[in-house]
Each structure stands twice: as structure tokens, then as C-alpha cells.
């Protein structure tokens, strides 16, 4: 039985509300930045920009990186802008990416450093629950500003004491470091090519000393040992342990990035994990020996040499960027509600994908014992009528509960599930009498500032059997108004406008 919900609100004569920014559940932490070092050697290379940038038809910017220079002389700015335009031809975002760039004094062999200004987890459409995403990427996915226009999305420093080549023509001499290459490298870190791993004496771990252990980035989610064990899987590696330190210094860590693997002859990219942990370099780079200076994947190795020109992030880096969230596969599915009797369950799934969907790998996987001993699957098939992928399950008589999740894949071998946190969480459909009250969440409207604008109200309502209508009952100065219904603006979210003249 679907329920009708009534919410009571009371207002005084000076009813005001600010046009508040829509917010989502999110948490943020801050960590130190990775660095790019000079190898101190001549490592001559000439790798041009990617085709998207070189071809006129594809040279339209897909994103907008706004740089604020601090202490920069004029000469390096054109090279910096060139690096920015290369990244803008690759990554896509509707939200501007704001970058602070400082002309600084850094450690003797450090060419530059960069990292996200902050990270967010559990924001709107976050691909993986409880994982941290750099703010620029989180904003791209959520399609909204998260840290505000007054804050940067990444902070970078470049060593003014180095002898730089500021040309954009790939002709860096063997006595200088190519500035475009280093800027490209650092922006890559700012966009999310970085980790939360650390080594402290004899122990390895992940997280932040300031905000607590256990936090991990979307990049960390990809890190695997040689046998394929995920470093975040505590059944293999306890956080803050000798075993994790051994893994972090094993010289045998890899990125389980499906897109990068497909572009790398089906081989996992090797990460930089030297036997002596190198803070700012370990894990957050590709392995130097595996991808030397003439290799097209050498940009995101930890060191850049004299005369080394790399103006393309390379297929491996671009694949890793895709898999941390710059290109996505979203499953849009409203979970099936509880039923008062055993009856057919209809599943309706919509997919949004940056790569072509693998229609042979779309499933509803279900169990009638909570996946303890049994599971089965239903193939999702496209329905022209509903413009969605659908399936129907007919439970046998006597069934009391069905647990299920949705699984989808794209042609880059990326598999996504809804919910994303299986096996810790599944959707559950119970067959029982409706005796549970709905759960209503509403943030009270404290005041209204702009008279003449409509006064809107938003309510989140969840009910195991579904919701038919959400009503608002209200009064103004003690006088009851006419109650009105809300429309569902998103799954479980209802909104509407008060039928009140706000000017009087």
C-alpha cells in the first residue's frame, strides 16, 4: 500500500528564506601533495600532444581550467596555458576548474608539486561509496560547485630556481627542463592521480593523521598487488600493518584500471613502489623503469629529465583517469518496494555511459536467502516502451524476502553495480503486512529574504511500500492555509511552492 504523507509547517508574518545552495551529504579531508622530481640526467624525448588537441575539429575545449598565477613572471605563462589547453581537450566537466599556481622555492630536486584543494565523498552520483574524490572530479560528477567559487580546486607550486624551457615546440635543449611537461604532470595530480597511502616506520597504512585512518581515494581503489589483491581489502592487508608496508615497498604494485589495461595490451600498468618508500612519489606515479623517457606513458612517472618533452598524458594515464571517474557508467534504478503478498517484481534500469554499453552483460542478480547460499540472475533487456532495460521476477509461493543488485558493464570491461557497495549492501524486497511508518527528512526553512520570489519546500520521504502523495499543511500567523501536494523531483525527493503571496 502506498502512503500519503502530511507535513506540517508554521510561519510568522516575516516569513523569509534565502536562496540556499542545494547540498548533498559529503565529507572532506586535506592531504599533502605529490611531487615531480628532476632525474638529474639527460633523457631526451619528443612526445607531441594528443590528437584531440592537434586536430582542429577536436580542439574545442571540453572543460575550463582557470589559473590564478601568484609570483609568476610573464615568460612561463604561455607554456602554462599551453599545458592547460591540452588537458582541457581531454577531460570533460561542466563546472569550471580553478587552479592556484605559485612560482616558489621548493626542495633542491623538486620541479613542482600539485594536489586537490580538498576531497569529497558520498556526494551526488559518487561512483563508489565512502571513497574520496578530488574536488574537481567530484564537481564534474555532481555537476555542481562543491567547495564554492571562492576556493581553488587544486594548488600547485613550481620551482623558480630551475632552468626551464618555456617553448611549446618540443625543442627543449638537453640543458633545460621542459616546463609544459611538468605543468601537465602536476595538473594530472590535481585532477586525481594521487593516493592516501603512507609508511610510518615499520607500518603501512592509508588515510590521514589529521582526519583519521581508513580514508581512501578513488585512485587507491585501483591499487593491487602482483597476485591481484586489492590493497584496500582488509582480508588481505590490515590497515596500519607491517604487511601493508611490505606491499607498499614491494616494487610490485599495479593499477587494476580496466580502460588502462585494455589500452596497454591487456597488461595492468605498473605503479612506482620502490623498496624504500618515497613520500610524495611512491604509489602516486607510474613506474619509472617500466615507462622510460621515450615511452608514450612516461608523463606520470616520478621524474623528468633534461630535454625530456612529454606533451601527452598517454593511454595508461588517460585510462586511469577514466576509471577514477572522469568517464563513467551510471546505473539509474529505483529499488523495488516491499509487497503485501508474493507477486511479480518488475525491475526497471536506465544506464548513462561515456563508453558503449555491453548489452550482453546487464543483469539483475538475486537471492532468497540474502546471498548466504544461493543466487540467480535475470537478463535485463531493452524495452522500447519504457526506454529502459527491464526484467521480471516471479517469486515462488512462500517467499518472504528477495535480495538483489543490478550489474552492468561497458565495452571497456568496466563493471558497475547498484548499490555500489556490494557485498556489504543489497536491495531487499520483503513480502509482509505494511506496518512500518514512512521516514521523513526535512530541513526547516528558517527565513525568507527575497519577497516576490516563490517560497519552495523540499522534503525527502522514504517508505518500504512506496509513497503515493506528500502533502504540506501550514499556517501563517496562526491562520491555516490550504494544504497542497508536492511533486517528486528526484527519487524520494519531493518539492513544491507555497500558494502564498509573499509580497503581502
What does this structure look like?
The protein has 504 residues and is mostly beta strands. The protein has seven helices and 31 strands. Strands 1, 26, 27, 28, 29, 30 and 31 form a seven-stranded mixed β-sheet that branches. Helix 2 (77-88) packs across helix 4. The longest helix has 12 residues, at 77-88. The chain is globular, with a radius of gyration of 26 Å.
Outline of the structure:
With 504 residues, the protein is mainly beta.
| General form | globular
So what's the oligomer here?
single chain
Poorly predicted sequence stretches spanning 5 or more consecutive residues: 10-29
Structural class of the helices, strands and pairings?
mainly beta
- Helical segment count: 7
What structural keywords apply?
single chain; mainly beta; 6-stranded mixed beta sheet
Topology, pairings included?
Elements: E1 3-11, E2 35-47, H1 51-54, E3 65-70, H2 77-88, E4 97-104, E5 110-116, E6 119-120, E7 133-134, H3 135-142, E8 154-159, E9 164-165, E10 177-178, H4 179-190, E11 197-200, E12 203-208, E13 212-213, E14 223-225, H5 242-248, E15 253-255, H6 258-263, E16 303-310, H7 315-326, E17 329-332, E18 345-353, E19 363-367, E20 376-379, E21 381-383, E22 388-393, E23 401-409, E24 415-418, E25 427-430, E26 439-441, E27 456-462, E28 467-476, E29 479-480, E30 484-490, E31 493-497
Parallel strand pairs: 1-28, 2-16, 3-4, 4-8, 9-10
Antiparallel strand pairs: 2-5, 5-8, 6-7, 11-12, 12-13, 14-15, 17-18, 18-22, 19-20, 19-23, 21-22, 23-24, 23-25, 26-27, 27-31, 28-29, 28-30, 30-31
Helix pairs in contact: 2-4
Amino acid at each position: 500500500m502506498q502512503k500519503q504523507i502530511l507535513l506540517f509547517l508554521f510561519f510568522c508574518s516575516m516569513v523569509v528564506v534565502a536562496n540556499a545552495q542545494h547540498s548533498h551529504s559529503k565529507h572532506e579531508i586535506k592531504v599533502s601533495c605529490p611531487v615531480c622530481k628532476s632525474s638529474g640526467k639527460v633523457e631526451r624525448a619528443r612526445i607531441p600532444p594528443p590528437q584531440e588537441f592537434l586536430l582542429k575539429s577536436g580542439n574545442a575545449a571540453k572543460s575550463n581550467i582557470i589559473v590564478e598565477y601568484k609570483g609568476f613572471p610573464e615568460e612561463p605563462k604561455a607554456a602554462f596555458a599551453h599545458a592547460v589547453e591540452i588537458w582541457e581537450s581531454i577531460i570533460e566537466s561542466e563546472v569550471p576548474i580553478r587552479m592556484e599556481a605559485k612560482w616558489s622555492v621548493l626542495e633542491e630536486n623538486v620541479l613542482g608539486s600539485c594536489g586537490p584543494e580538498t576531497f569529497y565523498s558520498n556526494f551526488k552520483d559518487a561512483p563508489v561509496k565512502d571513497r574520496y574524490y578530488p574536488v574537481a572530479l567530484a564537481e564534474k560528477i555532481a555537476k555542481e560547485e562543491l567547495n564554492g567559487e571562492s576556493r581553488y580546486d587544486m594548488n600547485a607550486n613550481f620551482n623558480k630556481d630551475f632552468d626551464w624551457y618555456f617553448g611549446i615546440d618540443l625543442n627543449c635543449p638537453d640543458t633545460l627542463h621542459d616546463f609544459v611537461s611538468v605543468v601537465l604532470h602536476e595538473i594530472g595530480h590535481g585532477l586525481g592521480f594521487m593516493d592516501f597511502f603512507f609508511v610510518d616506520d615499520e607500518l603501512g597504512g592509508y588515510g590521514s593523521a589529521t582526519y583519521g585512518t581508513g580514508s581512501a581515494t578513488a585512485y587507491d581503489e585501483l591499487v593491487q598487488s602482483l597476485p591481484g589483491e586489492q590493497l584496500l581489502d582488509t582480508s588481505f592487508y590490515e590497515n596500519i600493518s607491517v604487511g601493508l608496508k611490505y606491499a607498499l615497498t614491494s616494487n610490485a604494485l599495479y593499477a587494476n584500471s580496466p580502460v588502462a589495461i585494455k589500452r596497454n595490451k591487456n597488461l595492468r600498468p605498473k605503479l612506482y613502489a620502490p623498496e624504500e618508500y618515497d613520500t610524495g612519489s611512491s604509489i602516486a606515479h607510474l613506474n619509472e623503469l617500466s615507462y622510460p623517457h621515450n615511452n608514450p606513458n612516461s608523463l606520470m612517472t616520478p621524474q623528468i629529465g633534461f630535454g625530456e618533452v612529454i606533451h601527452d598524458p598517454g593511454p595508461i594515464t588517460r585510462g586511469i583517469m577514466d576509471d577514477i571517474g572522469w568517464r563513467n557508467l551510471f546505473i539509474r534504478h529505483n529499488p523495488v518496494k516491499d509487497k503485501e503478498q508474493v507477486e511479480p517484481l518488475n525491475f526497471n534500469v536506465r544506464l548513462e555511459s561515456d563508453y558503449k554499453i555491453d548489452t550482453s552483460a546487464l543483469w539483475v542478480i538475486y537471492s532468497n536467502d540474502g546471498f548466504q547460499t544461493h543466487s540467480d540472475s535475470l537478463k535485463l533487456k531493452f524495452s522500447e516502451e519504457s526506454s529502459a532495460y527491464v526484467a521480471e521476477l516471479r517469486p515462488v509461493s512462500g517467499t518472504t524476502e528477495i535480495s538483489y543488485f543490478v550489474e552492468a558493464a561497458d565495452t571497456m570491461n568496466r563493471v558497475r553495480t547498484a548499490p555500489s557497495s556490494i557485498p556489504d549492501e543489497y536491495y531487499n524486497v520483503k513480502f509482509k503486512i505494511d506496518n512500518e511508518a514512512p521516514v521523513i527528512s526535512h530541513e526547516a526553512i528558517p527565513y525568507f529574504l527575497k519577497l516576490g520570489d516563490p517560497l519552495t519546500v523540499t522534503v525527502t520521504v522514504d517508505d518500504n511500500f512506496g509513497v503515493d502523495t506528500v502533502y504540506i499543511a501550514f499556517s501563517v500567523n496562526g491562520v491555516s492555509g490550504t494544504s497542497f501536494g508536492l511533486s517528486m523531483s528526484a527519487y524520494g525527493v519531493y518539492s513544491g511552492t507555497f500558494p502564498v503571496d509573499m509580497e503581502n
